[in-house]
Specification:
Elements: E1 4-11, E2 15-17, H1 34-38, E3 41-47, H2 48-57, E4 66-70, E5 83-85, H3 89-98, E6 103-108, H4 110-118, E7 124-130, E8 138-139, E9 150-157, E10 163-169
Parallel strand pairs: 1-6, 1-7, 3-4, 3-6, 4-5
Antiparallel strand pairs: 2-8, 7-10, 9-10
């Protein structure tokens, strides 16, 4: 079964974006493991707002990957680089994990992360904590949740002050 990997950055106080969705505070001065991570991924999943944010960084984000964009607009037409999907995110992701292929990157946004975390579908959590306190914004995890015991696989510390923690689902934790 394919692994669903949350690879994301957040502020020290747990926000993934400013209240308006802006991520202007993210460090872009180094790779921070991105290239290595992407070499094990062949599919990305994200919400429409996250995809629109990615379009601000490059004309065709993740052009060599299968990009699945969850949307509430069932009539959105897919393109060569963006496959729009509406409907049950959890059911779709379960089926996607059973397809042959490499890793699946859960890019965001917060609502999709919350749904897939609660359904216990995220296998690996790679979270980069930036040494900044935003004070407000879109939280990485919010609302009522579930306890999920994880295993620390790796801890990376960078000169910029960024700390990246890699956690995985423990073998004794039920999968979604």
């Amino acid at each position: 079964m394919r692994h669903l990997k949350l690879f994301i950055a957040c502020s020290l106080d747990g926000f993934i974006a400013r209240p308006n969705g802006d991520v202007d505070w993210l460090f872009t001065d180094a790779d921070y493991g991105y290239t290595e991570f992407m070499s094990g991924i062949d599919t990305t999943i994200m919400g429409n707002a996250t995809y629109r944010t990615a379009l601000k960084f490059e004309d065709i984000p993740f052009r060599d990957k299968r990009n699945i964009i969850f949307t509430r607009q069932p009539d959105r037409e897919s393109t060569r680089f963006a496959e729009y999907v509406s409907g049950d995110i959890i059911d779709y992701t379960r089926r996607l994990k059973e397809e042959p292929g490499a890793g699946i990157w859960l890019v965001g946004g917060a609502d999709i992360i919350r749904q897939l975390y609660r359904a216990r579908l995220i296998d690996d959590y790679i979270i980069a904590f930036h040494p900044i306190i935003l004070g407000e914004g879109i939280p990485l995890f919010s609302g009522p949740g579930i306890q999920e015991n994880l295993r620390l696989e790796e801890l990376r510390r960078y000169d910029s002050g960024l700390v990246q923690m890699v956690h995985s689902r423990r073998p004794d934790e039920p999968a979604g």
